[in-house]
Write a structure and sequence with these properties.
Blueprint (H helix, E strand, L loop, with lengths): L5 H19 L17 H4 L23 H15 L9 H4 L27 H14 L6 H15 L32 H9 L5 H8 L6 E3 L22 H10 L11 E3 L10 H7 L6 H4 L5 H12 L1 H16 L18
Antiparallel strand pairs: 1-2
Helix pairs in contact: 3-5, 3-6, 8-12, 10-12, 12-13
Length: 346
């Protein structure tokens, strides 16, 4: 059913996108934060999509083939959050979306979801639960990649953050290797490295800072930041950009003798279950957990954006929604498959 309907859905998506792009191209996304409501409207944000290989994705992709898809995913995420309050912190959206493929590991293949940057992303069971329900309601129709994109949005919204229309119609890959995670931004990157990494995904400097704000729901394993806490350099034992008292707190959470358990780590801001701008306020205080977080304050290309978001949560929310649309639709192709099980290729 799902694979046979592609041509009809593609035609509907293309008609909608061409109409929206015609309008959107007449505008420019401003560098300032006094952007008009017209530019940032949900309809115009929907027009940001990747045309690679004529990929047909749009917000209404499942309207006919699986109209209950988003409701099923939302209810699954909501129930998981009620059962496990740590779900938002362990499902930080900017960590989840680049990992749209997550085949399970075998003896000969360690999957992407088990790669080093993904150690703290421990809520994939929510995706698996949603996928099982979708297979009962609409067999072979909704891809795992779309489930992840929608669930990431729902986690943000349920935590008090912005809502955006997720463009749908992605296909799942046929292979997933842990080595692929080496291409993801590392928590030790400086601003120049971040710019290079994000630019490869079609994202701007503003997108870097905006999406880093997704750490407001984040959790990190000790291995991602412990190098900042001791023997940082020949001159400094602790990273000098880090607040000293904050560093001592993290040291207690990550003692060298017992910091390898999956729960050894810390949330990335003090309100880890609420999507807000506290992450940026913590950076201003020297309380960024990752080096790649704190470095945003030391570079003129990103400092002003951090300061703006720390003062204006509405601006952060508005830009986050637009940046998530861009991130979620980078490199989308219609080649691939709709996996029946999130753990394995068909």
């Amino acid at each position: 059913m799902g694979q046979d309907r592609i041509p009809k859905d593609r035609e509907a998506c293309e008609m909608l996108k061409l109409s929206m792009l015609k309008k959107w191209r007449q505008l420019e996304r401003p560098d300032s934060f006094d952007a008009s409501d017209e530019y940032h409207s949900q309809e115009l944000s929907m027009a940001i999509y990747q045309r690679e290989e004529n990929a047909a994705i749009c917000a209404h992709y499942y309207d006919q083939s699986c109209p209950a898809a988003e409701k099923i995913i939302l209810e699954t995420v909501k129930n998981a959050t009620l059962y496990d309050p740590k779900v938002p912190a362990r499902s930080s959206p900017q960590n989840v979306l680049p990992r749209l493929l997550h085949q399970d590991s075998t003896q000969s293949n360690q999957a992407e979801k088990d790669g080093p940057p993904n150690i703290s992303v421990r809520s994939f069971y929510v995706i698996e639960d949603a996928k099982r329900k979708l297979e009962k309601a609409c067999p072979r129709t909704v891809s795992c990649a779309d489930v992840i994109a929608i669930a990431a949005r729902d986690v943000v919204t349920l935590s008090g953050g912005p809502y955006w229309s997720v463009l749908k119609g992605r296909k799942d890959g046929t292979i997933s290797r842990a080595t692929e995670t080496r291409n993801l931004p590392a928590p030790t990157f400086n601003v120049s490295q971040l710019i290079q990494s994000f630019a490869a995904r079609g994202l701007s400097v503003k997108d870097i800072v905006t999406l880093s704000g997704g750490h407001t729901l984040g959790f990190s394993h000790c291995s991602s930041f412990e190098a900042r806490l001791q023997n940082f350099s020949k001159v400094h034992d602790i990273d000098p950009s880090m607040n000293y008292a904050f560093a001592q707190t993290l040291k207690k959470k990550c003692p060298r003798s017992s910091n390898r358990g999956k729960n050894a780590g810390t949330v990335l801001d003090s309100t880890s279950s609420v999507f807000d701008n506290v992450y940026f306020k913590q950076i201003l205080s020297g309380n960024g957990v990752f080096g790649s977080d704190q470095v945003l304050l030391s570079d003129s290309r990103t400092k002003w954006i951090v300061e703006t978001y720390a003062q204006d949560q509405k601006a952060f929310f508005r830009e986050f929604a637009a940046s998530m649309v861009k991130l979620g639709n980078f490199g989308v192709k219609e080649t691939g498959q709709v996996r029946l099980n999130t753990r394995f290729v068909n």
